[in-house]
Design goal:
heterodimer; A: 539 residues; five-stranded antiparallel β-sheet; B: 663 residues; seven-stranded antiparallel β-sheet; four-stranded antiparallel β-sheet; 15 strands
Chain lengths: 539, 663
């Protein structure tokens, strides 16, 4: 069903590049958490306005001056995604003989304390979402009860912020922001880090540098191919290219991911608020000079440690346990580990979904598909269990009074995922024992315009929901929050199978950031310490 | 059998509010222990067997009203028996709380009767009360949970054991039954659960309600039309005259020959014409159908008008067809005599009729295959429209067939029966048209008056109150800091206090709306969901302080945000708007009204952020909350009851399969 209303024109020149691309051509990444050194003086402002020029945006006006001839020792810094793609294409054209071009990209995000340090006053901050202002791990008021945010996200017990490496209650001072650096290879990344740290030295101190990596097969530590299902923003080339069925499922209005444009409910989240009909517009009349929310988005960052050895042990034991039950057609009557792993997530580890294609569909059963729906194709969960990870994270048309309504509602809770894994990947069985001790996991990064309605909703109500879709008492096996004995039901005939899944993930750190638009960042940087134009509203 | 509710509101003695709050927080509030079991503190809630939920809320002092303590309870049985149990188990605890309240008898500890009287005097009940799982006692819910766990354990161990699975589903069902019967403690499950009469008689009550509304509308319509001289008696005696006047206007003789020729053609082609017009209206409907409840008001109205026009055409078609039957009516004498004279032409018409039958059969086949197909795959927009078109063709074919058959029969049946048949049909037609007209007029007048009054109110109040948009930046987090944490891990409690907008009109509208919601909660929405929202365990609305404030107390499952999203995005938003549009809140010295509604039911809460900000501002902290089954959701409770009920019935294989899918 086509959406009502016309398409919004998003100012992509002002939006940072992470919103539209996960920089797949820059597989090495570093996330540097920093805080302002001292009182945010002119050095900080200078650094930020300088950095704003180097940030990669989605689109850029001027022709790429720094594309360069591709001298082998130059670290190239394209300013738009298109320029980046051009550079990559140039590298490919040159062939394997020529030295690879080194390319780096930077994006910047700030926390609420970072905004406060830059001089945004309470009146300006009060328009940001309450979750962002409170932070992912607010300190508890009383010793006994966990704060609301932590209970909501399931960050209790071993995942509690008191055990976090960063962003939790052990931190002496708050994080002010994160710099997301992407590069083509390890040397380029080091050069980029050195360059940016040098630029930052006068204004801010780095707290922690986290590393992320994107492999060619796109697999994460448990072996699953990740990043297959991403929403496409309406009006972008990706959305236009999609087939009708896929578009119906995946195309989402821009306001769900970029502030200042209409979202799936038709509302705009921005500051100032659009005037109510028929009212004297007292707010907008004294509007600030620059809307710092516009073209920005909220970035949720969580470091999730994955217990790969526990996972491997679990699936091999379960495969033995279920022998003869799951795959009665298989000749040896043996259930493969692949089947078990697939049931947990909803896709096989090579990315093929469990939900079978329709009879009239042109795709084969072995394709990595994303255009399936649950209501008519697998309503009772016999192919893909109802509590499986992808079914919980994006229920499509399974959760609601009618399938069309459910699909429309599910679009209001999509997130763009931009995470990368960290730690050594297990490559072969022989190395497993040796490497099992190193920490490895996922830096989960997602972008959305409404933290409570998108990320927190998915995490709390769907992934951590013990009664999700009528289930009795179980949560997502891939989530850190377990209830009961961590039981998961595999829907099966004649009776369901109940498997006890151990805890596979632990939360190690996290924070809520704001990824500002370029002009907004410049406006923040311009304020001289005196009340900046951002909050020039005298009540 | 149906759980009762009590909402006891007592004013607190001056300067005792903080002490009471501290006492409730430290001594009364239950806590989850390390095993996630809810343990009661000094107040032994869990010893009151009939208590489902209860909560204590303090309404802070206001310039107009003193501070009050609200004790909300949902229990089984009568209020008197609940108070008896309460006094038996928790007399001291109640004394420790209520000694802070005004009017509490000082000798209450010694004489429980006085306390019961005091509580009964201050009980405000509820204007509207909704229960997610009506008709089940605490013991039944706990027992069914135990049965469910026993079955679950049995089933999950079953496939691991070496015993081969039974060959049939019924065999498996028998195994389950045996397992339950084995344990003496579980044998009660075999008895059929008592179903409250409101649930059993649901359809009957709905039908009775619709009938009452219809009769009332007819009455109002007749009264109003009677003022214009078109009352019942007048119309009844002159019905035939009116109909023939209309008919002769449409089909009678005129002085112009071309008009007569045209009207002759029209008479024969009239059914076809009406059918084409009906098809045209349906066609327009396909283009203007909307799926999104946020579609513009103009579009919604247009589609509504199209639907009414379509049905009007259908009715006209039926009426015309019936009138065609009457050989004695002054309507169309020429056609009947024409037929008698032109029998051969009539035979060719008969052949056409057979052709119509073939079309009928084809449409029926198409229709059935589409009905089957829609179960297995999404129908595109074109296919859906085609399906509706085909169903209309079917309907018309059926009507044509009926009329033709009656027509043919009436030619060969004796005149007496003929005239009886015609008289009967014509009277039926006249009466139904009359009733429809009266009901329509009555309903229209009432609705028109209501919506006009509402719209005027909405416009005038805009100037008086501030817009809820400004609330988005306010912070009321202290009131809900304990949500989704502590005791509220699985179920949540929401307490909201708003002011009723001034004026009798607003108060009456609120009372009327709450009355209808209460009625529908009791008789229609008693299967577990309130207009499509499945997460509410119990909700009540109480109008307090002589109509000045509205208190809303709600036990629901899941997080606050997702709970409100369900209201915003589904049809229940209209009910929400209807209640809350009569309220406003005070914050930082200004009065903010509920986000503007259009015509009482539309928009309002659909604007997400101001609505959520409004609810947050109106929220007050729940100090004590207790639930007899804190880990269960409404859906699970209802599923378990169905499971237990159906386990001991004789079931078909597919029914046993769906039973097992729930385990």
């Amino acid at each position: 069903m086509t959406q009502s209303g016309k398409m919004a024109n998003v100012e992509w020149k002002d939006v940072q590049g992470l919103v539209r691309s996960g920089f797949p051509h820059l597989p090495h990444a570093a996330y540097i958490l920093w805080r302002f050194s001292h009182d945010c003086g002119p050095q900080a402002k200078e650094w930020l306005s300088d950095l704003a020029n180097r940030l990669v945006r989605v689109e850029h006006d001027s022709p790429e001056a720094d594309a360069g001839d591709g001298e082998p020792h130059q670290l190239l810094r394209p300013r738009s995604i298109a320029a980046l793609k051009q550079l990559i294409a140039k590298t490919r054209l040159r062939g394997r003989d020529a030295k690879a071009i080194q390319i780096g990209a930077v994006n910047l995000a700030l926390t609420v304390s970072g905004l406060k340090a830059l001089g945004v006053a309470e009146t300006g901050l009060s328009h940001f979402s309450f979750e962002f202002r409170e932070g992912m791990a607010p300190k508890p008021a009383a010793a006994s009860t966990a704060p609301r945010r932590s209970s909501l996200l399931g960050d209790i017990g071993p995942d509690s912020p008191e055990n976090w490496d960063w962003g939790g209650w052990k931190d002496s001072a708050p994080i002010d922001g994160v710099m997301l650096l992407y590069a083509t290879d390890e040397t380029a990344l080091q050069r980029l880090i050195a360059h940016e740290s040098g630029a930052m030295a006068a204004a801010a101190t780095p707290i922690k540098a986290l590393h992320g990596r994107l492999y060619d097969d796109r697999k994460e530590h448990f072996g699953f191919t990740d990043g297959i299902s991403q929403p496409a923003i309406e009006g972008t080339p990706l959305a236009e290219r999609m087939g009708r069925k896929q578009a119906r499922i995946s195309v989402v209005k821009p306001g769900e991911f970029v502030l200042g444009y209409p979202n799936e409910r038709g509302a705009k989240v921005s500051y100032p608020m659009p005037p109510a009909r028929g009212r004297r517009n007292s707010e907008a009349a004294r509007a600030p000079a620059r809307d710092i929310m516009r073209n920005g988005t909220y970035l949720v960052f969580r470091q999730l440690e994955q217990h790969v050895d526990v996972f491997d042990k679990f699936i091999s034991e379960t495969a033995k346990l279920l022998s003869g039950t799951l795959d009665p057609d298989s000749e040896e009557n043996v259930v493969s580990e692949e089947s078990v792993a697939a049931r947990l997530v909803g896709r096989f580890r090579n990315g093929v979904p469990l939900v079978p294609p329709l009879a009239d569909s042109r795709s084969a059963e072995t394709d990595t598909r994303n255009d399936f729906l649950y209501y008519r194709e697998d309503r009772f969960g016999l192919a893909c269990p109802i509590g499986a990870h992808i079914r919980r994270a994006n229920p499509r048309n399974a959760l609601g009074p009618a399938p069309d309504t459910a699909l429309r509602l599910s679009k209001m809770h999509r997130i763009i995922r931009r995470g990368r894994i960290y730690g050594q990947r297990q490559t072969a069985d022989a190395e497993r024992q040796a490497q099992s001790g190193d920490p490895r996991g996922l830096h989960f990064i997602c972008l959305n315009a409404d933290i409570a309605g998108q990320f927190e909703m998915v995490q709390h109500t769907w992934l951590n929901g013990a009664h999700f879709n009528g289930l009795d008492h179980e949560t997502d096996p891939m989530s850190h929050y377990r209830v009961g004995n961590g039981v998961m039901t595999f829907q099966h005939r004649p009776t369901n199978l109940r498997i006890s899944v151990p805890k596979l993930v632990t939360v190690r750190g996290g924070a809520y950031f704001f990824l500002p638009g370029i002009k907004a960042l410049c406006a923040l940087a311009r304020s001289e310490g005196a009340p900046p134009p951002v909050e020039a509203i005298s009540r | 059998m149906n759980p009762g509710c009590a909402t006891i509101i007592t004013p607190i003695l001056p300067d005792r509010t903080e002490a009471l709050r501290r006492h409730l927080r430290t001594n009364v509030e239950p806590h989850f222990d390390s095993d996630k079991i809810l343990k009661c503190n000094k107040f032994p809630f869990n010893e009151i067997q009939s208590l489902h939920f209860c909560s204590f809320v303090i309404l802070d002092a206001d310039p107009e009203f003193p501070s009050c303590l609200v004790f909300e309870a949902t229990f089984d049985g009568s209020r008197a028996s609940f108070f008896d149990a309460l006094m038996e188990v928790a007399a001291r605890a109640m004394h420790e709380i209520y000694q802070h309240c005004e009017g509490y008898p000082a000798s209450g500890l010694a004489v429980p009767e006085l306390v019961k009287q005091y509580l009964a005097d201050h009980d405000m009940r509820a204007q509207a009360f909704f229960r997610g799982s009506p008709g089940r006692t605490v013991a039944q819910i706990a027992g069914e949970a135990r049965i469910y766990d026993a079955l679950l354990k049995f089933v999950s161990d079953r496939w691991r054991s070496s015993h081969p699975m039974p060959a049939t589903y019924v065999g498996l069902q028998e195994e389950l039954q045996r397992h339950i019967r084995q344990t003496a403690a579980n044998r009660w499950a075999e008895q059929v659960a008592a179903v409250p009469w409101e649930v059993a008689a649901r359809n009957l009550v709905a039908f009775a309600f619709c009938l009452t509304v219809f009769v009332t509308a007819c009455g109002i319509g007749a009264l109003i039309l009677g003022l214009f001289g078109l009352g019942i008696s007048h119309v009844h005696s002159n019905a035939t005259t009116y109909v023939s006047q209309i008919a002769s206007f449409l089909f009678g003789r005129s002085s112009f020959q071309w008009v007569n020729d045209l009207s002759d053609m029209l008479r024969i082609a009239a059914p076809l014409l009406l059918a084409i017009l009906l098809g045209g209206v349906r066609f327009l409907q396909f283009f203007y159908e909307y799926e999104d409840p946020r579609a513009k008001f103009g579009r919604r109205l247009f589609v509504l008008i199209l639907t009414i026009v379509a049905y009007a055409f259908l009715a006209a078609f039926v009426g015309f067809a019936l009138l065609l039957l009457d050989p004695t009516s002054k309507l169309d004498p020429s056609f009947a005599t024409w037929l008698k004279g032109h029998f051969n032409e009539a035979c060719s018409l008969g052949l056409l009729f057979i052709g119509a039958v073939v079309v009928f059969a084809l449409s029926q086949h198409w229709m059935t295959s589409l009905k089957l197909a829609v179960q297995f795959q999404e129908l595109g927009q074109k296919a859906k429209s085609f399906r509706r078109l085909v169903s209309d063709i079917l309907l018309l074919c059926k009507i044509i067939a009926m009329v033709a058959i009656l027509f043919v029969i009436s030619r060969y049946v004796s005149d007496q029966i003929n005239s009886l048949l015609v008289v009967f049909l014509l009277s039926l037609l006249k009466v139904s048209l009359l009733l429809a007209a009266y009901a329509f007029v009555g309903a229209f007048i009432v609705a028109f008056a209501f919506f006009m009054v509402v719209r005027i109110k909405e416009y005038t109040e805009r100037a008086r109150f501030a817009n809820a948009d400004e609330l988005v930046t306010f912070n009321n987090s202290h009131a809900y800091a304990r949500e989704e944490g502590g005791t509220n891990t699985y179920q949540n409690h929401l307490a909201s206090l708003t002011y009723v907008k001034p004026g009798l009109v607003r108060l009456w509208m609120l009372e009327l709306t709450l009355f209808f919601i209460g009625l529908s909660s009791r008789f229609w929405f008693n299967a577990g969901d309130l207009a499509g929202i499945p997460t509410i365990l119990s909700a009540r609305w109480v109008v307090i302080d002589g109509g000045k404030r509205l208190l809303f107390l709600d036990n629901y499952g899941g997080a606050w945000d997702s709970y409100l999203n369900e209201f915003i995005d589904l049809d229940a938003v209209r009910g929400l708007n209807a209640i809350w549009t009569n309220t406003f809140i005070k914050a930082e010295g200004k009065e903010y009204e509920f986000p503007e509604t259009e015509y009482y039911f539309w928009k309002g809460a659909q604007v997400e952020r101001p609505f959520k900000a409004y609810v947050r501002q109106s929220q007050i902290e729940t100090i004590v909350w207790y639930s007899a089954y804190p880990k269960h959701a409404t859906v699970n409770i209802n599923t378990r009851t169905d499971l237990r009920q159906s386990l001991f019935r004789s079931l078909a294989s597919c029914e046993v399969d769906s039973l097992l899918q729930n385990l």
